Amino acid sequence: MVLVAEFPEASPSGREQAGERPAVVVGMPDFVGAPVYPGLILVPFTTRLDKLTGHPQQLYPQYLPGVAGLTRPSAALIDQVRYVDQARLRTVLGRMTEAEFESIRTALQTIFSLP
Fold this sequence. Notes:
This protein is mainly beta and 115 residues long.
């Protein structure tokens, strides 16, 4: 699922994402049980594709407008995965197909050394 979430702007450091932006859900703690802090684990998107030139596309899968409700060419910032409280979730944009999500799944398995 792709939705709009508010990433805190109060103290982003370095290249941390901030502000409202599309993000893809990669984890739902409530699948395991009632979480202490309700929220989702998200990977934010960026439309600043020029900043990704020369970096591995496997780490930054790119998507065309129309995929899961995205309105601009976008890249998933796999190395920016983070928890977002449910109060910061705004609106659902759409859903990715399994094929569209596969590059995100593969990249997460790689950065977290999962089988």
